[in-house]
C-alpha cells in the first residue's frame, strides 16, 4: 500500500434523522451530518470540535460503521467501507476502535474488567489461550498506568479516570490503526482530564496510531491534535492545522470558541 494513503477518508457524508408522529407521519427532519469531508493520515490526530448537537458523535458513529450514512462515502486504508457485509465489517472493526465518554456505559457490571479488556482479543481470535490474553491484559494495564492486579476487579470499583484508562486499554488491545475518541475527557474532573490527555500524548508518541478526537471545546485539542475541523450544525465550517487555527481563526464560531477558552 502507498505510504500516503490516508487511514480514513470521509467524503460528503450526510446523515438525516426523521422523527414520526403516532400516525407514522414524518414530523421532523434533522440534518445531523450535512456534507462532511475530511481525511486522517497515518499517525495523525484530527480534532472534531463543536457545540453539543453539531453532529460530532453521529460522524464518529458513521466512521465506525455503527450507523449508515444517508449519503456519502467512507474509505478506511483505501478500502470503501460505506457498504459492507457482516464479515467485512468484522474485519474493519478490528482495526478501528472507539473510546467513549464513559466506557462503562457499554460494559457488563458483573464482568471483571480484565475479561472486558481481553474480550476483543478473544472475539477477533488474536490470542487464542487464556494465559496469553492474561499476559497481554497485564501489559495493557501497565501501559495505561493501572496496576495489573486491578484486572480482577469489577467496574464499580474504579474512579472516572481509572475507568477511562480501562476504556483506552480495551481500545488498544487489538492494536488498531484508528481510534475514534468521543469526548473521552468531558465527564472527568479537570485535574484528571490533564492526566488522560497526557496518557493520549504518550500513546501518540509511542504507538503512532491515527485518532479522530472529538471534543466540544478547544482546551485539550490544542495539546493533542495536529489538525482541527470545527463543526457547526452538521457542517465543517473551518479546518486547519492546530497552529493556524489558533493564530488565525477565520470563522466567527471558531473565534468564539477560542475566546471562550480559560
Ligand atoms: P454532538 O455529538 O455534536 O453533540 P450528535 O451527533 O449527537 O451531536 O447529534 C447531532 C444531531 O442529530 C442532534 O440534533 C441530535 O438530536 C440528532 N440525533 C443524533 N442521533 C439521533 C437519532 N438516533 N435519532 C434522531 N436524532 C438524532
Ligand atoms: Mg456527542
Automatic annotation (TrEMBL):
Chief location category: membrane
One Pfam family named in its UniProt record: ABC_tran
Domain (ABC transporter): residue spans on this chain: 8-258
Membrane topology field: Peripheral membrane protein
GO MF entries: ATP binding
Keywords: ATP-binding, Nucleotide-binding, Transport
Locations listed in the record: Cell membrane
Family according to the record: Belongs to the ABC transporter superfamily.
Protein name according to UniProt: ABC transporter ATP-binding protein
Amino acid at each position: 500500500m502507498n505510504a500516503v494513503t490516508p487511514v480514513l477518508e470521509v467524503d460528503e457524508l450526510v446523515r438525516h434523522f426523521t422523527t414520526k408522529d403516532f400516525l407514522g407521519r414524518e414530523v421532523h427532519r434533522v440534518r445531523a451530518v450535512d456534507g462532511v469531508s475530511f481525511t486522517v493520515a497515518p499517525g495523525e490526530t484530527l480534532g472534531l470540535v463543536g457545540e453539543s448537537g453539531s453532529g460530532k458523535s453521529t460522524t464518529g458513529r458513521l466512521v465506525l460503521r455503527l450507523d449508515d450514512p444517508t449519503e456519502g462515502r467512507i474509505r478506511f486504508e483505501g478500502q470503501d467501507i460505506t457498504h459492507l457485509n457482516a464479515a467485512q465489517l468484522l474485519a474493519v472493526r478490528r482495526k478501528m476502535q472507539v473510546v467513549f465518554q464513559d466506557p462503562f456505559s457499554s460494559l457488563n457490571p458483573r464482568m471483571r474488567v480484565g475479561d472486558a479488556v481481553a474480550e476483543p482479543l478473544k472475539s477477533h481470535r488474536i490470542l487464542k489461550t487464556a494465559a496469553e490474553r492474561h499476559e497481554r491484559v497485564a501489559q495493557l494495564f501497565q501501559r495505561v498506568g493501572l496496576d495489573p492486579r486491578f484486572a480482577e476487579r469489577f467496574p464499580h470499583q474504579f474512579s472516572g479516570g481509572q475507568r477511562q484508562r480501562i476504556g483506552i486499554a480495551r481500545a488498544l488491545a487489538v492494536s488498531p490503526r484508528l481510534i475514534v475518541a468521543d469526548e473521552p475527557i468531558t465527564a472527568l474532573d479537570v485535574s484528571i482530564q490533564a492526566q488522560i490527555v497526557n496518557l493520549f500524548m504518550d500513546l501518540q508518541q509511542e504507538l503512532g496510531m491515527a485518532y479522530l478526537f472529538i471534543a466540544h471545546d478547544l482546551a485539550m485539542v490544542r495539546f493533542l491534535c495536529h489538525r482541527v475541523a470545527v463543526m457547526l450544525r452538521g457542517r465543517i465550517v473551518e479546518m486547519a492545522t492546530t497552529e493556524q487555527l489558533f493564530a488565525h481563526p477565520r470563522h466567527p464560531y471558531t473565534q468564539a470558541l477560542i475566546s471562550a477558552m480559560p
